[in-house]
Design a protein that fits this description.
There is one protein chain. 72% of the residues lie in helices and 0% in strands. It is mainly alpha-helical. It has one domain. The longest helix is centred in the C-terminal third of the chain and has 26 residues, at 55-80. The relative contact order is 0.14.
């Protein structure tokens, strides 16, 4: 049984809490510097252009990256503004 994926990525919750918590100034500075520069189209192109990865695995990677950006990085970044 899966509980929102935490059994697949047990550290994701801790990592997300750390980033969203905004208690580490170095992390906050990195978010301000890096988030506006994240180009999901370019990242997805890298995934798509990677040989020997099945189409379903490529879709999984792109979905996971997109969700992490939207649900962790963007939430933390918006809270810093």
């Amino acid at each position: 049984m899966y509980d929102c994926g935490s059994c697949l990525y047990p550290q994701l919750s801790d990592d997300a809490d750390f980033i969203i918590g905004r208690k580490c100034q170095d992390c906050n500075h990195a978010l301000r510097r890096i988030c506006p520069r994240i180009d999901m189209e370019a990242i997805e192109k890298i995934v798509d252009d990677t040989p020997y990865i099945s189409a379903i695995r490529k879709q999984f990677y792109k979905s996971m990256l997109r969700v992490r950006k939207e649900c962790i990085l963007e939430i933390a970044y918006d809270a810093l503004l």
